[in-house]
Amino acid sequence: MNYEKKFSQVAKTAKVNIIRELLKVASDPEMISFGGGVPDPETFPREELGEIAAKIVQEEYKITLQYGPSEGDNELKNAYINLLKKHEGIEGVSPENMLVTVGSQQALQLIGLTLLDENSYCAVGKPVYLGAVSAFKQMFPKFLEIPLEDDGMNVDILEEKLDELVNRGEIDKFKFVYVVPTFQNPAGVTMPLQKRKKLIDLAHKYDFLIVEDDPYGSLRFEGEPIPSIYSLEPERTILLNTFSKILCPGLRIGIIIASTDLLRKLTIIKQGVDLCTPSLTQRLAARYLQAHDRIEQLKPTLELYKSKKDTMLDALEKEFGGMKGVSWTRPEGGLFIWLTFPEWVDTMEMFEEAKKNKVLYVPGEAFYVNEVEKNHMRLSFCLPSHEEINEGIRRLRKVAENYVNANSMRSKS
User: Fold this and answer.
1) For the segment 360-389, what is each residue's pLDDT rounded down to a tens digit?
2) What is the CATH number of the domain that holds 231?
3) φ, ψ for residue 285, nearest 5 deg
4) Which protein family is named in the record (predicted)?
5) Sequential DSSP letters for 140-156
6) Direct distance between the N- and C-terminal alpha carbons of the chain, in angstroms, rounded to an integer
């Protein structure tokens, strides 16, 4: 049967997630992967989680093995509220402000389903987290791509784009700006307080929402924390958090924090997607957070990630420091470094050579919507060992040299 003619427009336009595909290739034991933002499994509190899991299945089975409310488990919500108060200084959040989702990816999908349609506009970074674009694209909105600077989204260009919508009489169709302001994925850069306040001012001026995705905020290795956009303007901000980076991704738990009116509509949409987030993983996370200060426990993990980040930066300096036109970001936290080559380089073309040399990365073009830039790559430092990082960057230098030599005419033009 020809299934093509039966597919919806969403199915016809859907593209494979390159990071998910990378994970298949990364299973080769000789491969060194800087691909997916996969936490180091040795940092997972598996013994504590194992003990709690056995107990809640035996003693709380009427909850953990049953359907749960669409809004999520209040035990988990209250435990997370305490974490927000203690470690992020966020006050005034109640369970009614929270919706528990199946990871942040579902949160992004629910936001798209709730706020976007074919006539809508939304603004995203250039580059942008590809999972967000995949979720929003299902509603066929129009994307405003806003260039990234060393300190996050260029809010002056955002304002110019918004003025263009005003002049065309389309500003009412603009729904939200999507940002990862702290250790942005893929670039690793952070938006300073002044820019966050400017973004809030624009939200008031042009009447839009800010979708603040914050999966990496707790993974700060150095520098001073910056207040979240939500803490500065909760009425206009939708805050997304996840347990995937601070606890473990296998739980598949995300949380949306927003105004109660908006949460009510998001909850109704979620009921049509999956009824509820699994009760078992929610209660497991809740009991863990009640018994342990997870942020305090993250300190050894952060020391590990910082040392790996430093190892990668040192390796990049050693291998690429003398290569003309090559630069990279220097994040203070998170999981990623953004490596940039001269404009004529195509890192997707380079990828096949990389696979032959047993090293993986994510080609930069995966992180753009319309105006694709091909000369970047995202490197994740959290999973490989120090030895693998050094060897992987050495292999990457060889890949780049082979590519440059094979394309020497293009490099001179």
Assistant:
1) 999 999 999 998 999 999 999 999 999 999
2) 3.40.640.10
3) -65, -40
4) Belongs to the class-I pyridoxal-phosphate-dependent aminotransferase family.
5) --EEEEEEEETTEE-HH
6) 49
What radius of gyration, in Å, describes the C-alpha atoms of the chain?
Answer: 22
Examine the fold and report which residue of 272, 293, 314 is the final residue of a domain before the chain moves on.
293
Which among 306, 312, 365 has a CA at the least distance from the CA of 337?
312
102, two tokens: 């199946």
Q: Who contacts 286 (Cβ-Cβ below 8 Å, separation ≥6)? A: 73, 75, 76, 79
136 within some domain: yes
- Which structural domain range is residue 280 located in? 44-293
Closest CA to 39 of 305, 330, 388: 305
Asked if residue 146 has pLDDT above 70, the reply is yes
The total domain count for the chain is: 2
Place of tokens 């999520």: 72
Maximal CA-CA distance, the chain: 70
Q: What is the pLDDT of residue 381?
A: 96
Average pLDDT value for residue range 297-303: 92
Residue 322 is part of a domain; what is its CATH number?
Answer: 3.90.1150.10
Print the SS3 string covering 176-238: EEEECCCCCCCCCCCCCHHHHHHHHHHHHHHCCEEEEECCCCCCECCCCCCCCHHHHCCCCEE
